[in-house]
Each structure stands twice: as C-alpha cells, then as structure tokens.
Amino acid sequence: MNTSIKNAVNVSTLESIVEAMKKIEEKKVLKLVNYAIREGAAQAQIIEAIQRGLDQIGHFFEEGKYGVTDLMMAGIIFEEVLKLPSLKLINEESEEPIGRILLCTIERDLHDIGKSIFKSAALMSNFEIIDMGINVTAEQILNETINRKPDIIAISSILAEGVRYIKEVNEKLVTAGIRDQVKIIVGGLSTHRQAIEYTGVDAFANDVYEGVKQCKIWVNEGGEAN
C-alpha cells in the first residue's frame, strides 16, 4: 500500500477509535484497535486516540451527560485494549527504569480512567509504577512512600472534595520530614493550577502526556516544566 494512502487510512481509523470510545462502544473500539494494529499504527497513536475519547467522556461526565457507570465502563474498555498482545506495555528485557512513581486515585474517589491512562503512558516512558489503586488515603500514601521511596507521587482526583485530601497528603509528608524527598503531581477534573498553591503539590497536568513529560523532567534534569 502506498505510504500516503496507508497514513490516511491510519488517521481515519484512529479518528473512528476516538468516536467509538467517546460513545463507549466496547466491541467497536476493540475491533477498530485491532484493525489499526494490522494497518501498522504505532502503539502511542492508538493510546492517544483512546485518550482523546476518554477526555470527551470526562467532559460529558462533568456536564452531567454521563454518569459514574459510564466512567466505569470506559475504564473497562481501556483495560481491555491494554490487554491486547500487540499493545503490551512492559518489555521484560527493557532497560533499567528511569524513575519510580507511586500512583493512586485519592480518598473517596473510585474513578480509575485517568490513573490507568497515566500508568500506560508512564510505563511506555520506562517508569516503574507502584499502583495503589483507587480510594487511597493520605495515611496509606505516606506509609507507602516511606516503604517504597518513590521519586514521584502521582495522584488522580475527579471529585471536587479530592483537593482537600491531596492537601492532607502534602501535610503528612511535611510532618514526617520527607516532603523534600519526593515530587507530587496531580491530575483530573477537580485539579487546576490554583490547586498547586492550596495543596502544596509541585505540579498539575491537564493530560497524561503533559504529566509524564513533567515526571521525565524531574528524574532526568531535576527541573521544572515550561
């Protein structure tokens, strides 16, 4: 197939994945992803298409068009995509991880989508991920930080009350005298730039790739994102 034609087909298929994901059409998403793989679409392109669809779902949830069940179903679809052999994210013979990230969804929050997408993107960037799951308390994060010594703590929060619990995480790390040993990045619909000052975290990210980019800056250069 001519390269330009193949690229056009890839773009069309990827856009179809976005639309199917946005509509939470499980069978169609998996069918299109498998087709995209056969077309030669890159792993990152497919994940990016899934993320764009999930971003729309997040906006629909924020607007009240979708409910918690829709978010959970979208998360299930994403996990099914990641189970496809051609999209396996971890290479057993890969080089040494560039850094260790402690990842979770904050207390009272049961949403897994943003965390799962960030996890996949971070794994592709060769981070070691310690996934604590959902509904994780500040005390649990403190204990795991002490035990596992991550370079970065990444916290997802969709619910508005999550900001209060993220602030508690920062306060517990300060009290324990280890706050300066770890960076904290947050993401999700409830987080914004003003949350950095309120919670005391180091950064927030509008999307997972922005978040992973910041994490790479921290472990590679020890600097701040522009």
From TrEMBL:
<dbReference type="Pfam" id="PF02310">
    <property type="entry name" value="B12-binding"/>
</dbReference>
<dbReference type="InterPro" id="IPR036724">
    <property type="entry name" value="Cobalamin-bd_sf"/>
</dbReference>
<dbReference type="Pfam" id="PF02607">
    <property type="entry name" value="B12-binding_2"/>
</dbReference>
<dbReference type="InterPro" id="IPR006158">
    <property type="entry name" value="Cobalamin-bd"/>
</dbReference>
<dbReference type="InterPro" id="IPR036594">
    <property type="entry name" value="Meth_synthase_dom"/>
</dbReference>
<protein>
    <recommendedName>
        <fullName>B12-binding domain-containing protein</fullName>
    </recommendedName>
</protein>
<dbReference type="InterPro" id="IPR050554">
    <property type="entry name" value="Met_Synthase/Corrinoid"/>
</dbReference>
<dbReference type="InterPro" id="IPR003759">
    <property type="entry name" value="Cbl-bd_cap"/>
</dbReference>
<keyword id="KW-0170">Cobalt</keyword>
<keyword id="KW-0479">Metal-binding</keyword>
<feature type="domain" description="B12-binding">
    <location>
        <begin position="98"/>
        <end position="226"/>
    </location>
</feature>
